[in-house]
Amino acid sequence: MARRKKQIPEYGTVMLRGVEYYRTRVEDADGKRVALYARTPEELYDKVQNAKKMIKEAEFRRATPTVRDYCEKWLQMKASQIRFTTMNDYRSKVKNYIIAPLGDKYLSDVTADDIKLALCLPAEKSNSVYGSVQMLFKNIFESAVDAGLIQSSPCDKIPAKGGKPMEEREPLTDEQIQRLLIAIDGLPPYVFVMIGLYAGLRREEILALQWDCVHLDEEVPYLSVRRAWHTEHNRPVISRELKTKAARRDIPIPDQLVACLREAKKNSRSKFVIANSEGEALSGTQFKRVWAYIVTRSTKERKYYRYVDGIKTEHTVKPQLGKAAAHNSNVVYSLDFKVTPHQLRHTYITNLIHASVDPKTVQYLAGHEKSKITMDIYAKVKYNRPEQLLSAVNKAFGA
């Protein structure tokens, strides 16, 4: 079969520096007319075909952006709607868990399997990280559907929890609280832990707390939550922009916390309740070092690295309850349970509920904006206790 001969149109010519060129114009993806030149009609024809192909690809990319392009656009759209700290968290997670594995793919080419594979990495992290990344995937692709860029979201075919069991965040028991406080008595995290356990403040609220919001000499001593802590490039930033409007609250404090704060204030040379050696708010790294006093006293197996003869060597620590650390006899492994900053707050809320404090009061003291958050915790805590279940059943049946 004879090969079909190219139908080359007649092009105009133009003289440039004494040389004759064939010339034509094409319209680019932005609607601008661009001139193309060549020495022969055949060469110009090939240039036109290549230009049309590139223009078509540009139009396709514009209509169907890559995951990277749309994620960056989505983050820009969100920037004015959420707090600076939340935006930083979103940027980090989008970059590491969405753009890194899928950034070069077109939105329309992403499948549910692609997302399931991308979720494998955050699945190795905490439940919080996993849930946050899953939420970002869902919101980004739903936004793309609303914008008409794709017909349906591939996230629709992924189960709500992605098949990853959520870890129960159990509050500390009274016995665990006493063991924790004994283990860190006189150490840097002690005051932080006391505020978390007996006032229920969030981490960012504790680290931003200043003495002008600690009212110890009132008839009813209380703390005022008026500031929040976050970091920018590891540097502490104290803001009056709280997580929600409900976060602004005055919390009466029990005697044990009053005594703790009186002692801390007597020895403080800073305006911050929790401060570094220079009297300033803690940086992100400094807080991790403070919390390490708790981690190093736990029996959780962990790894560390040492250089031996210039060679980086991995070591594994397998702490035994009641034993002292091999390289520091002052560190005794006395905590065989997990402790997190949020767990302190969860323990505070749980203890209020066990004391039969009504849900609306718990909601206020916890700084919950939505009552559903409080009620979910309230229902689980109150009615998972046998004595409460028995009381409820007897009441229902008139016993």
UniProtKB/TrEMBL annotation:
Keyword DNA-binding among record annotations: yes
Signal sequence bounds: none
UniProt KW GTP-binding keyword: no
Keywords: DNA integration, DNA recombination, DNA-binding
Classification via InterPro entries: DNA_brk_join_enz, Integrase-like_cat_sf, Integrase_catalytic, Integrase_recombinase_N, Integrase_SAM-like_N, Phage_Integrase
Alphabetized CDD domains for the sequence: INT_ICEBs1_C_like
Domain of life (superkingdom): Bacteria
Domain Tyr recombinase, chain residue ranges per copy: 167-394
Function per UniProt: Site-specific tyrosine recombinase, which acts by catalyzing the cutting and rejoining of the recombining DNA molecules.
Protein family membership: Belongs to the 'phage' integrase family.
Protein name: Tyrosine-type recombinase/integrase
Species of provenance: Allofournierella massiliensis
